[in-house]
Write a structure and sequence with these properties.
- This protein is of the alpha/beta class.
- It is 36% helix and 26% strand.
- A 5-stranded mixed barrel has the order 1-2-3-4-5, surrounded by 4 helices. It has a 5-stranded parallel beta sheet with strand order 7-14-8-9-10. The chain has a 5-stranded antiparallel beta sheet with strand order 19-20-23-22-21, sandwiched between helices.
- The protein is globular.
């Protein structure tokens, strides 16, 4: 009898504990896992629409890779290194003396970068989240049910959140190569390359994509001998080939910022005697070669960050390495959504932001939508490279008849007056309807000018629509007008 009473009391305590556990769980209309550009924007939007919302991130400071160790700090270094390079190489021709004697204090450059990062991440947590009444949890979030997320808090303990809707926005991590161990000291991802304490004499970049060329530009401007190794026989895969070819010529032959070893694969790496030894070979086979470097940047792309989220336990369907979603960004479990780098499509911060807003608007019954044909892509080198829509190779492969207009910045008056006339604007339009299909720019401020084309594609404009729109003179954007004139008729200034 005594034994039975003990069992009953034990069961009663267990049941009471279970009831308290669930009653202590906090309830939300939406829980967002990840506070990167997609996640924090989604959380703020949910708050603006009156939802009770929580956002979770293990990093601590919000903003994800982009604000903490990606887009924002890299742009700070690109800006600083451009000023240095401009003074060193170009001031003299403008009548400004002494520029060739300037020196770079890397420590102060890094402090300026950190100031920008902390200001922006602090603004998210201290202003945006508070204004929209977003509860921010610093810890690792895991799906433990269709309507439940558990959070292992960074400071210890666990929180259980009940959610009517869950949004996965966990972003991505740097991709690796077998045999190339990243230690963030000698062999670095982009994170490590943002923290160099001195300018490396010899820098080897593996991967001729956005990250590799941006960071290669930073350290090349500051004096590094930069070699970029690329598996393919071209740089910037996915970018219009005509634009990419001219881009490579400017970076290597004109600016002499970097050398390219194309059609080359990396077989392995080791650190010996304070140097990195890279074993390479032609991608299509051939003799091996060892390349020595002081630092190596591994930048071959990114992979979705999904480890430990509990997706498999819930039966969430995958599409290869990414989460499978429908046109409303819902997974196969309708109240669980996914956005950004962990679903298909370009791994871009602004694409994730648009998806975050669209998902929240769908939850709110407002019919959110993203036009993937009008997502711009920018490489923030100098000159900048910016694109939107289809490139010429994609149109040819799809059998779409098109017409093309090209206008060089060398014929643009503003570009000539500021002595920054490398590059061109290339416009692709439907051969019959003249509807804009793609616009590609290589030149000064291309990342800002591309928005004219983005708006044009978003609203179904023709090349003639942009060409007949008055542009201020003298401006760089006149090159867009002239390229559109070249597409549907003839340009004036060439």
């Amino acid at each position: 009898m005594l034994s039975r009473n003990i069992v009953l009391r034990t069961r009663s305590r267990s049941l009471a504990s279970s009831i308290r556990f669930f009653s202590d769980a906090k309830e939300y209309d939406c829980v967002v896992i990840g506070a990167g550009p997609g996640g924090y924007v989604a959380a703020v939007k949910a708050g603006q629409l009156g939802m009770k919302v929580a956002c979770i991130d293990k990093r601590g400071p919000p903003g994800g890779t982009c604000l903490n160790v990606g887009c924002i700090p890299s742009k700070a270094l690109l800006n600083a290194s451009h000023h240095y390079y401009d003074a060193k190489k170009h001031f003299k021709k403008y009548g400004i003396k002494g520029g060739e004697k300037v020196e770079m204090d890397v420590e102060l450059m890094m402090k300026a970068k950190e100031k920008a990062v902390k200001g922006l991440t602090g603004g998210i947590e201290g202003t945006l989240f508070k204004k929209s009444k977003v509860d921010y949890y610093k810890g690792f979030g895991k799906l433990t049910g269709q309507n439940e997320v558990s959070v292992d808090m960074n400071e210890g303990g666990k929180e259980v959140l009940k959610a009517k809707n869950i949004l996965i926005a966990t972003g991505s991590d740097s991709a690796n190569i077998p045999g190339v161990p990243v230690d963030e000291k000698m062999i670095c991802s982009s994170t490590g390359a943002l923290e160099f304490t001195e300018v490396p004499e010899k820098l080897v970049v593996i991967g001729a994509g956005v990250i590799g060329l941006e960071m290669g530009s930073v350290w090349g401007r500051l004096g590094s001998d930069v070699t970029v190794i690329e598996f393919l026989d071209r740089i910037t895969p996915g970018i219009d080939a005509e634009i990419a070819k001219q881009f490579q010529t400017i970076l290597s032959r004109k600016q002499k910022l970097m050398n390219f070893k194309l059609g080359t694969k990396v077989l392995g790496a080791s650190v010996e005697g304070g140097k990195v030894l890279l074993k390479t070979a032609p991608s299509k086979g051939g003799d091996e070669e060892v390349i020595e470097a002081d630092k190596v940047l591994l930048s071959i792309g990114r992979t979705p960050y999904l480890d430990g989220l509990g997706l498999e336990d819930l039966g969430i369907e995958m599409d290869g390495r990414v989460i499978k979603t429908n046109s409303h960004l819902q997974t196969n479990i309708p109240n669980i959504y996914a956005i950004g780098d962990c679903i298909k499509g370009a791994m871009l911060a602004h694409k994730a932001e648009e998806e975050g807003i669209a998902a929240i608007e769908h939850i709110a019954g407002l019919g959110g939508h993203v036009n993937y044909e009008a997502i711009p892509n920018v490489i923030y080198t100098h000159p900048e490279l910016a694109t939107v829509g289809k490139n010429e190779e994609e149109l040819k492969e799809a059998g779409i008849k098109y017409k093309k207009g090209v206008f060089p910045f060398m014929a643009n008056s503003r570009a000539r007056t500021i002595d920054d006339a490398d590059g061109m604007v290339k416009v692709l339009a439907d051969a019959e309807t003249d509807r804009l299909l793609g616009v590609h720019m290589l030149g000064p401020a291309a990342g800002e000018m591309i928005m004219e084309a983005v708006i044009g594609i978003e609203y179904g404009a023709s090349s003639e629509d942009l060409a007949r729109t008055c542009h201020a003179h003298p401006t760089l954007s006149e090159a867009v007008k002239e390229a559109c004139m070249a597409t549907y008729d003839k340009p004036i200034h060439i």
